[in-house]
Hints:
The chain is mainly α. The protein is built from five helices and three strands. It has a three-stranded antiparallel beta sheet. The protein is elongated and about 60 Å long.
Amino acid sequence: MEIAVDEKSFEKIVDGIMAKRGYVPEEQIVGKTINVQEFAKKYCKPHGQAWVKRNILYVFKPDWVSNIHPGRGGKMTIFEYPAAIWMNEHRKEIDWDAK
């Protein structure tokens, strides 16, 4: 049995499946910045921002975080696209069981 589906309909179906599974199109995160709390929620669940700082940011000092030691009243900025790539490439180096 063969079913004919036009390209637009097919794209819509695939986009729906991808969204349902949590995939984000690359162009949606390129150039986007997030804070440590968002980063922890998206990439390090169930760990919180203190855990992320202690076990990822201060240990690896990645270049995708700006103002890593902001001091009182300041905030870190994380560039999401390179952070996502880095997390994928370095996930085995992170001690996920650390407290």
